[in-house]
Design a protein that fits this description.
It is a single chain. A six-stranded parallel β-sheet has the order 6-5-4-7-8-9, with helices on both faces. Strands 10-11-14-12-13 form a five-stranded mixed β-sheet, sandwiched between helices. The chain has two domains: 195 residues, glycerate kinase, domain 1; 172 residues, Glycerate kinase, MOFRL-like N-terminal domain (Rossmann fold, 3-Layer(aba) Sandwich). By secondary structure, it is of the alpha/beta class.
Length: 448
C-alpha cells in the first residue's frame, strides 16, 4: 500500500464532520431569520416586524426538528403558532404542535393528515399575518396528495413504481407536483390567506421547486408537457385518475400574490461538497469536482463518478509526477467529489441504495487502493436514529469492506456526498498501481 492511502478512513471521518458543519440546518435558519431593532430579516429581505400581526410557521421534512428549533430561538414569542412534522421530534423547548412523520412514500394517512394541517394553518391567517414555510427533503410526503379518484396507498405505489422503472427522484417529484392534489405544485397559494409567505428550504440537488413539490411555485405549462410525455411512455402502470388529471384542460397559471416570495435556498449540495473538500484539502489531498449532482440510480451513479475520476486523472499531469518520499508539500493524492441522490424520491430511506452504490463501486473500480465513500447528510430513525454511509476499497478481487459513518437523525439533508480518494503514486509505482484491466475511456460529458 502506498503512503497516500495509509489511513483514508480517518481522512474521510474528518471530511464527514466538516460536511455536517457546513450543512448545519439550525445555523442556516438562524442566519436567515433575525430580529434586530424592530427589523425582521426574512432570507434575503428586511422588513419592519410591526408589518405583521401574527407570524406562523410550518417545519417539514428530514431537518424539521432543526428548522423549528432555529425559528423558535430566532423569533421567540413573535411566533404565534406552528407545526413540526418529520422523522425526529423537535426539542421539548419548542412549544408548538409536533408529531413524528417517518420517511416513506406519499399517500400514507399520517402524511395526508399533515398536508391538511398545513392547509388549515395557511387558511387561518389574515392579510396582516406572515407564514414561514421551512422545508427540507421529505416534505413531499405531506404536501403531494393523490389526485381525486386514487387512494393514498395506490398513489404511493404508483410513485414508487415509477422509480423502479428507472425514473429519477426529480422526475417522480415533478410528476407528483403536477398531477397530485394538496398543497404541492403551488396549490398552497389557493388556500393561503396570509399577507406574506416566505419559504426557506434545503435542496438536495433536485432543485428548489421540487422540495416538497414546490407549494408556493405554480406549475408551469412546460412542466405539464414534460409530465405528459413522461407518463405517455409509462404504459399500464399509470392509473386512470392520473391520466384524467393530465387530460383536464390546462389551468390558467396562478399568479404569485405580492406577499408570496420566491423560495430561498439555505443550503444545497454545493455547501456539502465545499465542507468535505475543505477538510480533505487540509489533509493534503488535491480536490477536484467531477459533477455537482449525479441524479442516477446507484449502479449508474457509481459508474459516472468513477469514470469522472479517470477523466480527471487523465488530464492531471501533476498526478503522475507526485512521486517520491513523503514530504510536507507532497500531496497524499486526489479527492474527487460529486453530489448524489441515488435516483431516490426525496424522503425515501437511503440505506439499500447506499449499499448498492458501494457494491457497484467496488466491482467497477480499476485502481488498487482506491477508496470510494458516501457521506450522508440526513439521519433516519430506521436504524436506531442513525443513517450510515460508508466506504469501499477497490482492488484486484473487487471486494471491499464497508465502514459506516453514523449520525443523529433530523440534523440536515442536502443529499449525499460521493468521494473517491486516489493515493499519489509511490516511488516505485507505475503499472502496478493499477489493476490488469485497462481503465475505460469515459464519455466526454462525464469529464470535469
Amino acid at each position: 500500500m502506498t503512503d497516500g492511502a495509509a489511513d483514508p478512513e480517518a481522512a474521510l471521518a474528518h471530511a464527514y464532520r466538516e460536511t455536517m458543519t457546513a450543512v448545519d440546518a439550525y445555523r442556516a435558519v438562524r442566519q436567515a431569520l433575525r430580529l434586530e431593532n424592530g427589523v425582521l430579516r426574512l432570507g434575503n429581505r428586511f422588513v419592519p416586524v410591526d408589518r405583521y400581526r401574527e407570524i406562523a410557521f410550518v417545519a417539514l421534512g428530514n431537518a424539521s426538528a432543526s428548522l423549528a428549533l432555529a425559528a423558535w430561538e430566532a423569533l421567540g414569542e413573535r411566533l404565534t403558532q406552528g407545526i413540526v412534522a418529520g422523522p425526529s421530534p423537535p426539542p421539548g423547548s419548542v412549544p408548538f404542535r409536533s408529531w413524528e412523520l417517518p420517511n416513506g412514500p406519499p399517500g400514507r394517512p399520517e402524511a395526508m393528515a399533515t398536508g391538511r394541517a398545513v392547509e388549515e394553518i395557511a387558511g387561518d391567517l389574515g392579510p396582516r399575518d406572515l407564514l414561514l414555510l421551512l422545508l427540507s427533503p421529505g416534505a413531499i410526503d405531506a404536501l403531494a396528495r393523490p389526485p381525486p379518484g386514487l387512494s393514498g396507498p395506490e398513489w404511493g405505489e404508483f410513485l414508487l413504481a415509477l422509480g423502479r422503472e428507472g425514473r429519477s427522484g426529480a422526475a417522480v417529484a415533478e410528476i407528483a407536483r403536477v398531477v397530485g392534489d394538496g398543497p404541492a405544485g403551488g396549490r398552497l397559494l389557493g388556500v393561503a390567506r396570509a399577507g406574506g409567505v416566505e419559504t426557506l428550504l434545503l435542496d438536495r440537488g433536485d432543485g428548489p421547486a421540487l422540495v416538497g413539490g414546490g407549494p408556493t411555485v405554480p406549475v408551469a405549462p412546460e412542466e405539464r408537457a414534460r409530465v405528459a410525455a413522461e407518463l405517455g411512455s409509462a404504459g399500464p402502470v399509470v392509473p386512470d385518475a392520473v391520466r384524467r388529471s393530465l387530460t383536464h384542460p390546462t389551468p390558467a397559471p396562478v399568479a404569485r400574490p405580492p406577499g408570496v416570495q420566491r423560495p430561498v435556498v439555505l443550503l444545497g449540495p454545493a455547501d456539502a461538497l465545499a465542507g468535505a473538500s475543505g477538510a480533505l484539502a487540509d489533509r493534503r489531498y488535491r480536490c477536484r469536482l467531477a459533477e455537482l449532482t449525479i441524479p442516477d440510480p446507484p449502479e449508474e451513479a457509481a459508474r459516472r463518478l468513477l469514470d469522472g475520476t479517470e477523466a480527471i486523472l487523465a488530464t492531471d499531469p501533476a498526478f503522475r509526477s507526485d512521486r517520491g518520499p513523503v514530504a510536507a508539500d507532497r500531496p497524499l493524492g486526489r479527492a474527487i467529489f460529486a453530489g448524489l441522490t441515488l435516483g431516490l424520491l426525496e424522503g425515501q430511506l437511503e440505506g439499500e441504495a447506499i449499499d448498492r452504490f458501494l457494491t457497484a463501486a467496488g466491482r467497477i473500480g480499476v485502481r488498487r487502493d482506491l477508496t470510494v465513500a458516501v457521506l450522508p447528510t440526513a439521519g433516519s430513525r430506521a436504524s436506531g436514529g442513525a443513517a450510515a454511509g460508508g466506504t469501499v476499497r477497490t482492488g484486484p478481487n473487487r471486494s471491499g469492506i464497508q465502514r459506516p459513518f453514523a449520525m443523529r437523525a433530523g440534523l440536515s439533508d442536502t443529499g449525499l456526498v460521493g468521494v473517491v480518494l486516489v493515493p499519489s503514486p509511490g516511488p516505485a509505482a507505475g503499472p502496478s498501481a493499477v489493476s490488469g484491466r485497462k481503465a475505460p475511456r469515459p464519455p466526454a460529458q462525464n469529464a470535469a
